[in-house]
Design a protein that fits this description.
It is a single chain. The protein is of the alpha/beta class. The chain has 14 helices and 11 strands. Strand 5 (94-99), helix 4 and strand 6 (119-124) form a beta-alpha-beta unit. Helix 7 (190-204) runs antiparallel to helix 8 (208-228). The relative contact order is 0.11. The structure holds nicotinamide-adenine-dinucleotide and glycine. Residues 40, 42-43, 46, 67-69, 72, 99-103, 105, 125-126, 128-129, 132-133, 136, 138, 148, 165, 168-169, 173, 176, 259-261 line the site of nicotinamide-adenine-dinucleotide.
Length: 355
């Protein structure tokens, strides 16, 4: 089993990565008075039911939510908290988040507010959640007005990654996860980017040792960033590369057309072109990133999907300062720069590649 550590004083925890970890999970957890396993319908059928059967405890309860981004809201949090109270969960109980990023974000937020905060662990089952959302303690839900508007920084007590769960993940969600994987190469580790380039087919074919190495390296990078800047005062912003355009694209299409990862992939494509246009990266490196994004197999065309209304959504981005839009753009290999642009400047640049 691969083990990484997030050193954050009293909030330190470990990330465990292995095949078939789910079967061993109950024995790996610190004891709690009782547990709520929060999951979605799909993941409950695939993994939750058998996890509860193996656990053989009447102190473990499943709370099953509908799948998808629509469930990531305050109504769900209220319902989950009510169910937890009815089930008798106390301050000494724990939450186990079993699922993708939506479940991790909702369950983590519930843990941070239920009885003013109880322990929780992340058991991510999508690639995106295994390499990104389960690590680092960002939790939260959406409002009708915007994504991840209500939330908290609340670290889990452990992250348990069973790479075997990716075998049932639909390819669309595998590609979504690849967006965040490629992001780490772009923002932090050029050597990792070239490794991804040579192993992309193996990843898409779920080759075990490659998948495990990819997940390990992504978690290692995320751990380094989070330890250096837990609450996104500085360095952690680099994790938002591709997200300014990505989040705007999700919002402009009512969160229905693109998964988060797909929107980030499109966002990284557009933001790489912006970086080249601004002279932050050379043409060769730009082509290298765009080609890697292309290799994921996601098909899109910037001129047909994007337009000026995206910039309206970007004006509401949480990272903005002084009415200027914040972009985290690639700058050289394995590095980024934050670039602040006015609405007019941003659109002037983006319209060169968008319709
Ligand atoms: P998701 O949680 O919606 O999962 C995608 C789909 O895959 C769901 O339908 C789910 O039922 C299904 N699924 C999950 N595991 C499966 C498996 N092993 N086999 C088959 N099906 C499976 O989407 P996601 O891409 O995992 O997460 C996206 C969310 O994560 C967004 O809300 C995004 O904002 C959030 N996010 C949070 C952070 C963070 O730091 N907290 C970082 C990145 C993204
Ligand atoms: N996914 C961005 C972050 O964790 O900061």
């Amino acid at each position: 089993m691969e083990t990484l550590h997030i050193e954050l004083d009293k909030r330190s925890y470990a990330i465990y990565i292995d095949r078939n970890l789910l079967a061993r999970l109950p024995g790996l957890l610190d004891p709690a008075e009782s547990w709520a396993v929060i999951t979605d319908e799909e993941v409950y059928g695939l993994y939750g039911k058998s996890l509860l059967e193996n656990w053989r405890s009447d102190k473990v309860h499943a709370i099953v939510l509908p799948g998808g981004e629509e469930a990531k809201n305050l109504q769900t949090v209220g319902k989950v908290a009510g169910q937890m109270l009815d089930l008798g969960l106390t301050r000494r109980s724990g939450i186990l988040a079993l699922g993708g990023g939506v479940i991790g974000d909702v369950a983590g937020f519930c843990a941070s507010v239920y009885m003013r905060g109880i322990r929780y662990v992340q058991v991510p089952t999508t690639l995106l959640a295994q390499v990104d959302s389960s690590v680092g303690g960002k939790t939260g839900v959406n409002l009708a007005q915007g994504k991840n508007i209500v939330g908290s920084f609340y670290q889990p007590q452990g992250v348990f990654i069973d790479t075997q769960t990716l075998r049932t993940l639909p390819r669309r969600h595998l590609i979504s996860g690849l967006a965040e994987v490629i992001k780490y190469g772009v923002i932090y580790d050029y050597e990792f980017l070239t490794y991804l380039d040579s192993r992309l087919t193996d990843i898409l074919n779920l080759k075990d040792d490659v998948l495990k190495e990819v997940i390990r390296r992504c978690c290692e990078i995320k751990a380094e960033v989070v330890v250096a800047d837990e609450k996104e005062q500085g360095l952690r912003k680099i994790l938002n590369c591709g997200h300014t355009v990505g989040h705007a694209l999700e919002a402009a299409t009512d969160y229905r057309e693109y998964t988060h990862g797909e929107a980030v992939l499109v966002g990284m494509y557009a933001e790489t072109l912006m970086a080249e246009e601004l002279g932050l990266i050379d043409q060769r490196y730009c082509t290298e990133i765009l080609a890697l994004i292309g290799k994921t197999g996601m098909e899109f065309s910037l001129d047909s999907i994007l337009g000026e209304k995206l910039v309206d959504h970007m004006m509401k981005d949480k990272k903005n300062r002084d009415s200027r839009i914040s972009f985290i753009l690639p700058r050289g290999r394995g590095e980024t720069a934050e670039v602040l642009l006015t609405r007019q400047e941003a659109w002037g640049l983006l319209r060169k590649f968008m319709g």
